[in-house]
Hints:
Elements: E1 14-18, E2 25-29, H1 65-75, H2 80-103, E3 105-107, H3 113-126, E4 132-136, E5 143-146, E6 152-156, H4 157-162, H5 165-180, H6 184-199, H7 208-216, H8 219-242, H9 245-257, H10 266-282, H11 284-294, H12 302-314, H13 317-325
Parallel strand pairs: 4-6
Antiparallel strand pairs: 1-2, 3-4, 5-6
The chain binds zinc ion (2 copies).
Amino acid sequence: MAKKNDESIEPTGRKNVVCRFCGQKNGVKSGYVNGAANCGRCKLPLSDEPRKVFANLHKNDYIHPADAKALAALKAIPGVDSALKKLLAWTGESAIRVAFMASAVKVTPKQCPDLYAKLEVACGTLGVDMPDLYVQQNPIVNAFTGGVEKPIIVLHSALVERLNDEETLAVIAHEVGHIHSEHVLYLTAARLLEFLLNRSVAALIPGSEIIKLIVSMGIASALLAWARRAELSCDRAAMLVMQDPHVIGRTMMKLAGGTFASKIDYDLFLEQGREFKKQYDESRLDRFWADVMNSGLSHPFPIWRVAEILEWTESGEYEKVMAEHAS
Ligand SMILES: [Zn+2]
Ligand SMILES: [Zn+2]
């Protein structure tokens, strides 16, 4: 008799795998191996291995000491908050929102649903209210978070095209980390200042007096120095969501190598990160030049960032945060 009950065409022999990220049930063949396919909803590698989330995570549980120190230096400048609020009142939240509503694609449960699901994963893991998420046409691989009261996250189109699903979640988690760490107001002021100072248009716009005041009080330099260090805290937030340092490492490799990343040896890239960190920690001169070069970038060097994440996980600090705050 001909064999009719082929496993591939009969519903018997199938089972459900609940996605460890978004909770979606995915029907798979029995004998399915974790990671062999992607979840139908969030598109992340499908696996039912356990994953932890945080009920009451506080920013002080994971913040990078360089971020905390630079923020304390910034806040020690008298009048800093009122000066930055005056600066932001000039553009206002509505200007930021209108700019993105007009120029970028808003991600919703129906528009780019896998990106929306990834945002839910990052917010659900860290315990953050869902912000608006946009994708904007831009050839530079980057993302940012801005706003005053209501934060928004913007992903550049090149970033979504270049990174795989796990790496994209790592970047979204980094951005949600800015919200969780309460960076958004200062970060928005830093980006706005960089924009105005780099384009020499500051003198032409209303509010130019406040910009002059911010520069003369030393707020601008303290703010920009802090903004670079704040990124290190948010890489830790991304690590708390991904729970795998090598997803962060490979994301940094793509940020460093661009389209060339497929030809890079990942282990050697990590070694380069460790070497960079060693020289930075030991040599004041290297540190000086690294800081000078970094001041022209929106994020610190990817090599430095990967070295910082490796150090944090290998020191046992990451495990401690997971053990104390995640379940
Ligand atoms: Zn999923
Ligand atoms: Zn960032």
